Amino acid sequence: MCNLYRMTKPASEVAAWFAAVEQAGGANFAAEVYPGYTGLVVAEGAVKAMTWGFPLVLKGAKGQPLKPKPVNNARTDKLDTGFWRHAFHNRRCLIPLTAWAEAQGPKGRMTRTWLSLPDSELFACAGVWRESDEFGPAYSMVMTDSAGSAAENVHSRMPVLLALDDYSRWVSGSPDEAKSLCKPWNGAVMIDRTDDPWVKGAASQKGLL
Hints:
The chain is α+β, with helices and mostly antiparallel strands. 14% of the residues lie in helices and 36% in strands. The radius of gyration is 16 Å and the shape is globular.
C-alpha cells in the first residue's frame, strides 16, 4: 500500500502535461503528500486540489464522534463495494506523481524506499474521488499487486500505474474497461533505497479498504 508519494511539479506544469485546465489556484500542497493532506488530481479535465483520503467516520466506545480517518488506498478487488462503488463508477481521476514510497526495515527503524518510472519526470496512477462533508473534495489511490523488481525487493502491492494511452480509458471508460487497467505494472521500475526515517515531518497514517 502507499502512504506517501512525491509530486514535485507545479500545478501549471501538471496542467500542461495532462492537457487540463488549472483550477488548483493558491492551494497549499507540499512536494511530499501524506494521507489527510492536500494533493493534486486531474479530474473532469482540470487540475484540482483535494484531500488525500476518503473520510471514514468513526465513533468512540460511548458513541461519541471521533476525528474521521482518511482512507487513502482503495483495493482493486473492493472497487465495487459500497464504500467505493459510486466513486469508481462515476468519479475516476488521475493522480500525478513523480515517485511513491514504501517503508522498509525493522519496526521502529523503518526507512523510505522510493519507486519511480525510469526516464519519466511525471506519470499518473489511477484514482477515485468524491465530495465529502468532512474533507471537502477527497481522492483515494487505487492499489493492485506489484510485479517484477518491485514485488521481489520492496512490497507486494503498488499503485495502479497508467500508461499515457490509458488515461482516457481510466477516466471516461466503462467500469469494466477501467477495471481491466487494474493490473500490475509490467514496465521497468526504478528503486531508490534511502536512510531517511519513514516517519518524519508529518505523521504517516495508514488507510485502506
